[in-house]
Amino acid sequence: MSKAANATLEPGMKMPREKAEEEVNAYLSFKGMRPKRRIEKKEYINAIIDCVEDGTASIDPETKVIKHKLIHSAGGISEFVYIPRLNQGKIANRLRMSSSTDGNTAVACYIAELTGNNVTVVGLLDTEDNVIAQAVAMLFM
After folding, report:
1. How far apart are CA 124 and CA 73, in angstroms?
2. Residue 32 to residues 21, 25, 37, 116, 125: CA-CA distances in angstroms?
3. Mean pLDDT of 11-24
């Protein structure tokens, strides 16, 4: 793979808005997200496009993994890596193990499952990092 093709794999690299939109749309297509659902999730999709554009996040063009460079580390973790697909059985188990049933806890459980972190680490996210994490999680809810 050429260095230019590899350039979009790592967070921290800014790119034109149109290229960020292309990458996010390719990710959504990989997920199988239908047009109507994209309209419903437009706010979250735009937040992810903003992050890809400004270099806070990147999407691997082959695996569709989202890498999110945290503004402030959370529990010693400086980057969240979000898997592109989520098994409902796994998230159901994580939600059952949760001690709370409010909406914030549900979103935190999704973030934890998508990143392979525990809910405690998700709870340590800076508010700006949490906005990005929630945007990714909301695509699965």
Report:
1. 8
2. 16, 10, 10, 22, 29
3. 90
**Contacts made by residues 78-81, CB under 8 angstroms, sequence distance 24+:** 79/11, 80/111, 80/115, 80/117, 80/129, 80/133, 81/115, 81/116
The residue written with tokens 């193990």 in the block is 97
Closest CA to 138 of 2, 35, 28: 28
123 residue type, one letter: G
Angstrom distance (rounded) from CA 111 to CA 68: 12
Burial tier of 113 (Cβ tally within 10 Å: 0-12, 13-18, 19+): buried
Residues 50-104 have pLDDT tens digits of 999 999 999 999 999 999 999 888 889 999 999 999 988 888 888 888 776 778 8
pTM of the model: 0.86
Sort residue 64 into left (φ over 0), alpha (ψ -120 to 50) or beta: left
Is 56 in contact with 69 (CB distance < 8 Å)?
yes
